[in-house]
Amino acid sequence: MVNLAAITERRPYNAASEFVDGNVKAGRGNKVAFKEGTRTLTYGELQKESCRFASGLKALGFGHESRMVMLALDTIEFPVAFWGAIRGGVAPIPLNTLLATDQYAYMIDDSRAAVLFVSEALAKTVEPALPKMSWLKAMIVAGDKNAIATGKIPAYSFDEVVAKGKADLFAAPTLSDEVAFWLYSSGSTGAPKGTKHIHSSLMYTAKTYAEQVLGMREDDVIYSAAKLFFAYGLGNAMTFPMAVGASAVLLSGRPTPDSVFEIIKSEQPSIFFGVPTLYAALLADKRATKGAGSAKLRLCVSAGEALPPHVGENWKKQVGLDILDGIGSTEMLHIFLSNSPKELRYGTSGKPVPGYDAKIVAEDGKECGVDEIGELIIRGASSAEGYWNQREKTRRTFAGEWTYTGDKYVRDADGFLRCCGRTDDMFKVSGIWVSPFEVEAALVSHEAVLEAAVIGHEDSDGLLKPKAYIVLKQGFTSNDQLFESLKAHVKDKAGAWKYPRWIDVRDDLPKTATGKIQRFKLREEDAGKGV
Ligand code: 3UK
What was the pLDDT predicted at 259? Predict the structure, then answer.
């Protein structure tokens, strides 16, 4: 039996000591922890380099109780910087690498981080934000520090910081209950929220989901197409394999069918983690055959949005393995409901992971019966401490032991839980949030658009993509050229995956008496029409 109480008990504890130093102590100093292309990092190297990084940060004046924003690709430097920071008591804050300058400006300033760790390839996106940042005191660039003009902010290369630091083993005297790192979570309105996670939560997710549902073990080789900056990828490819002394493969580039099949073939992973859109794209490729190219593949996992049943069924037919769909969240850190190799029902998120309790509640707070839709709430020790400087939202989401997911769920007579959409207007595209509000804001900032409403519309794979309803300003007519220009405009303003795949021009949009757009009416109308 896994003793979960021992993990959450309040005590002096630094997660880096257990995840990094624990592996060296267990004799895995020479084992490869991470592989990225031709580069490798052993557990022993990770220990030394993370000590040097922590000590280098300290020498620059950043120690226990400071914060470091990370805008970093999945390279060998990621785990060194992440664990180096945690070791030094500095909270790392990995950011989504697919965002635009203004969004970075918001999160860097909101977090009040003193240090920004950035991969050279991403430096140009964040550069225009730097003169306006009021809290940043230093930049660390993985690569050439001259690739970015940092103005008054001193810049150091990753190598310089590591060289400055000492390799002596140390860890800041943190507590198991203390905030270790943050992740930003987005909502339907308003800005993203800094979600604060504590040191013990990392091992809690590993001992519950990774160990008991996946049975992850020392000889596993992990490949996660979801990047380390997502809570999903962070667990999959970093904390889970490290919790059992396994190895993870990292890809710094985009996970396309080509790059993913190439990695599966060359690295022969035993566990693969993806999102539904990627599985659908992989299935359309002729390489989606037995084991997908890896003789060792034993588990495939999907999360981020609901997996359409036919994707799982076709994968099973072509690849020979089931896809385990599970739901997790930034707020709960990782997966809390999941299918398992022993118990799987497509079209559902499975059952609660050992260590988590799930309830479906009606609006009056009463628990729903079988087949009654309500909001899914979760109890489990990996829940975040709260949102940074967002008291109202914190109180609403983290209600004592229970965390409100904002997801509508229903439980069937056999105890399987099925997702029925959101309680708000949010939806996921490729597992990444889209807020209709921000796509609409981008659309109305175009010269031709008077009003806009955006909903998720199912594509031919049963996966949601943005669909826009717009009212044009006088003097503009709808044509393909205008639609292309609107799509390009949204990509530029809001993010590449958020552009509307369909645009419907209307004379007016359904609104409440107070002028609020009624997206649910458009959704109902759209559902009636089918694809
Ligand atoms: C939705 C799902 C149906 C759901 C995440 C695994 O996605 C993760 O975190 P986010 O904070 O989003 C959380 C929300 O995404 N969702 C996620 N998985 C599923 N809906 N079926 C699923 N399998 O709305 C949830 O509230 O981006 C996923 C591990 C860690 C994570 N943070």
Answer: 98
Ligand 1: centre distance to CA 430 (Å): 11
Output the pLDDT for position 495: 85
| Ligand 1 in reach of 36 Cβ (< 6 A) | no
Output the six-digit token pair for 322. Answer: 């089931």
Structural contact between residues 273 and 232, judged by C-beta atoms closer than 8 angstroms: yes
d(CA 501, CA 153): 41
Our answer on whether the CB atom of 463 is closer than 6 Å to any ligand 1 atom is no
- List the one residue out of 281, 297, 284, 298 whose CA is nearest residue 430: 281
pLDDT per residue over 106-154, tens digit each?
999 999 999 999 999 999 999 999 999 999 999 999 999 999 999 999 9
**What pLDDT does residue 229 have?**
97
Pocket test of ligand 1: the residue of 195, 305, 344, 435 to mutate, having most ligand atoms within 8 Å of its CB, is 305
pLDDT at 531: 46
CA of 378 to the centre of ligand 1 (A): 13
C-alpha angle 73/74/75, rounded to 5°? Answer: 95
201, 378, 428, 463: which to mutate for ligand 1, most atoms within 8 A of CB? 428
| 252-310 pLDDT per residue, tens | 999 999 999 999 999 999 999 999 999 999 999 999 999 999 999 999 999 999 998 99
Query: What's the pLDDT at 123?
Result: 96
- Ligand 1 centre distance from Cα of residue 428 (Å): 9
Token look-up 């902010």 returns 153
231 lines ligand 1 (CB under 6 A): yes
For residue 76, the 8-state DSSP code is: T
Residues in the chain: 531
Contact 183, 159 (CB under 8 A): no
Q: In the chain, which residues have pLDDT < 70? A: 187-189, 513-514, 529-531
Of ligand 1's listed atoms, the one at least distance from the Cα of 337 is 23
pLDDT for the residue 514 = 67
Domains plus CATH for the chain?
A: 43-174 (3.40.50.980), 198-380+396-422 (3.40.50.12780), 429-526 (3.30.300.30)
Token pair, residue 489, equals 């405009």
Of ligand 1's listed atoms, the one at least distance from the Cα of 433 is 27
Shortest-distance atom of ligand 1 to CA 405: 26
> Would the CB of 419 count as within 6 Å of ligand 1?
yes
